[in-house]
Amino acid sequence: MVIFLTIMMGFSVLTIGVLKSSKKTKMITEGNNLVIDKLEYIQSCPYDHAAAGGCPEMAEGTHTEDYGAISGYSGFKRVVVVSLRATSSLGPPRVLGQKRITVTVYWNQDSQQNNATLYVTE
Length: 122
Hints:
The chain is an alpha+beta fold. It has one domain (2-120). The protein is 38% helix and 26% strand. The protein has a four-stranded antiparallel sheet, with helices on one face. β3 and β4 (112-120) form a beta hairpin. The termini are far apart.
């Protein structure tokens, strides 16, 4: 009986570990999907945010969808940062009028994140 209980406790610990890992994987996948979703949306927007009509994310600055603001994903926060790339002798060549758009998704109260950067030219 003691051996049986020990084995059952081992299985329950293993099951809890698998469930925790599964939840973490789910959160990472959802975070990745939220980044990709926003980048695809931004790619469909006109370069000139004034003509965008519904794409404020193309305007320079920081645009935040706080926790609870993303429909169906209350445990996530999404931040879009848009900036014009300045000319510099460092890094890859710059194109005049190029915007750098970085989308970052946070979860677990900002303890975890995923991001991606998109460069858009006029």
